[in-house]
Amino acid sequence: MITVQEFCKAEEVDEDSVYGVFVSYIEIYNNYIYDLLEEVPFDPIKPKWNSCSTPMRNTDFVPPQSKLLREDKNHNMYVAGCTEVEVKSTEEAFEVFWRGQKKRRIANTHLNRESSRSHSVFNIKLVQAPLDADGDNVLQEKEQITISQLSLVDLAGSERTNRTRAEGNRLREAGNINQSLMTLRTCMDVLRENQMYGTNKMVPYRDSKLTHLFKNYFDGEGKVRMIVCVNPKAEDYEENLQVMRFAEVTQEVEVARPVDKAICGLTPGRRYRNQPRGPVGNEPLVTDVVLQSFPPLPSCEILDINDEQTLPRLIEALEKRHHLRQMMIDEFNKQSNAFKALLQEFDNAVLSKENHMQGKLNEKEKMISGQKLEIERLEKKNKTLEYKIEILEKTTTIYEEDKRNLQQELETQNQKLQRQFSDKRRLEARLQGMVTETKMKWEKECERRVAAKQLEMQNKLWVKDEKLKQLKAIVTEPKTEKPERPSRERDREKVTQRSVSPSPVPLLFQPDQNAPPIRLRHRRSRSAGDRWVDHKPASNMQTETVMQPHVPHAITVSVANEKALAKCEKYMLTHQELASDGEIETKLIKGDIYKTRGGGQSVQFTDIETLKQESPNGSRKRRSSTVAPAQPDGAESEWTDVETRCSVAVEMRAGSQLGPGYQHHAQPKRKKP
């Protein structure tokens, strides 16, 4: 490093230091760092994989591996494993630059035939190492070595998809480029806000590899200059406006200037101090200085043969010079002996120091060898950990994808369960309504059947009571003589004569035979404004009363059906039953019709009207036969009321050995629904 060629020299630099220039070239593609100067070895045994995770042929190109971004102990960012080439001239630097330029990723878009798809960084590193105190060797102290770096960054331009018409890989590259530029602008905005308003917001350098690599420059470890390129075409007005606004923001950001550290403890000019130098200009030699210290010689010119003073003066001057020379020789010998003693002591001290330094050097060499082994072990461990980290990252990506898929599936299942739960609740509500409706319907049906059964049983009991009364009357009659058996015609006439009873119409409303016929009046319902379903069962008997229920615009049915209920709002059931006094009692049961959730109709009963007819002389008794002899024991004869005569007839059947037969004509037996 000390032997420097003439064409590589630079002027106005520190002559007591040596210098070296190193260059490197990287690119940031899809937020990954690649070394453009790396020579990728070809491995015919290890299979290669392309972007589709399929093995490539051995003759295909093997893409370079991405590099990691690391931080040293001084918090400076650097690319681990990046190739650095030492150059001696500008020609070598340009040769290295063009060698990496050929590996840059470019592609054809709708706007640019050779569009750069990545950010490129060309680093020029200048290393200054001072010489030691003797000026012969480089000082082996890392603290005294100074490194300066110049980074030339070529940022890829922002793209709009609707203009570039990018798709596939081009679209992905454009998205990563725009994202890194947006992160750079965000960092600029946060820096400006922190400087203008005194805030301490965290700058998001780690969101992009571009900003993370140059975070030391923005934090005050360097200077930053930005060159903006614009296109004067009118179609690029929006892009130019955004770029100019970004440049305006960057002008307001102030970066602290770094402080240069001085190289301390070294004397300037030490490189040429120990080198032999000749007389320069009018500088006197050492011999001239020594000769000038002797006394001057007198004039040695003898003009007269009898001159006796010149030679004695010359002899005296020479003796003085000889004496002075002898004194100087003695002094020189003394000083040389003393200097020799000092040199001997210095040699002994240097020898002991050399032995001591050699021992320390051996120890240091052992320590260095141990540290090298440790470094190699740590590097292997680091590579293993990096490989594991890469595998874990891939596994994490797979797990995250599975997690997202499972979450989507879980959300779908939850939505499906919610829909099923809603359908279930609606179905439960519908079934509950149907159950309630069916329950009410069957309760009413059971009540109706119980009432019908009670009425039937009452009728049967009443018939039995009448039979017993008739049988008792026949048994209690006196038997004077055996009557002749009448013919069938007379028997029928007699039975018909005995079964004749008054009309079921109450006596209060029986018209005179000679009076004109009375027009029957109909009783108007109180709810004649609505449409009604008039339910009259076929088993009902037609009464001949003057007052008759009449509902206009009613649908008369014998059996209730859904079609009739759907057309009306009101419902009326005509129900007949036998009262306790033997008269027919008509009940008009009214109700409102409602639509159910299941699409049917339900009836809610609200009112009951009772139509009943009575005889004014209901307490009057009639004999059971037209002629009845007096009882010998003085007991009262059997009597029957008018109601019984109006509703019961007795008929003697010929050939019967069990007595007369009975048949109930007033109330026929109701059929079971």
TrEMBL record:
Any GO BP annotation: mitotic spindle midzone assembly
Positions of the Kinesin motor domain: 1-253
Coiled-coil boundaries: 361-430
Chief subcellular location: cytoplasm
GO cellular component entries: Flemming body; kinesin complex; microtubule; nucleus; spindle
Location in the cell: Cytoplasm, Cytoskeleton, Spindle; Midbody, Midbody ring; Nucleus
Ranges of Basic and acidic residues composition bias in the record: 478-496
Region (Disordered): 474-516, 611-641, 654-673
Keyword Iron-sulfur set for record: no
Keyword terms: ATP-binding, Cell cycle, Cell division, Coiled coil, Cytoplasm, Cytoskeleton, Isopeptide bond, Microtubule, Mitosis, Motor protein, Nucleotide-binding, Nucleus, Phosphoprotein, Ubl conjugation
Pfam families named among the record's database cross-references: Kinesin, MKLP1_Arf_bdg
Gene Ontology molecular function, alphabetical: ATP binding; ATP hydrolysis activity; microtubule binding; microtubule motor activity
Sequence similarity: Belongs to the TRAFAC class myosin-kinesin ATPase superfamily. Kinesin family.
Function: Component of the centralspindlin complex that serves as a microtubule-dependent and Rho-mediated signaling required for the myosin contractile ring formation during the cell cycle cytokinesis. Essential for cytokinesis in Rho-mediated signaling. Required for the localization of ECT2 to the central spindle. Plus-end-directed motor enzyme that moves antiparallel microtubules in vitro.
Subunit structure: Heterotetramer of two molecules each of RACGAP1 and KIF23. Found in the centralspindlin complex. Interacts with RACGAP1; the interaction is direct. Interacts with ECT2 and PRC1. Interacts with ANXA11 during cytokinesis. Interacts with BIRC6/bruce and USP8/UBPY. Interacts with ARF6, forming heterodimers and heterotetramers.
PANTHER family tied to this protein: KINESIN-LIKE PROTEIN KIF23 (PTHR24115:SF600), KINESIN-RELATED (PTHR24115)
Protein name: Kinesin-like protein
Native organism: Pan paniscus
Gene transcribed to yield this protein: KIF23
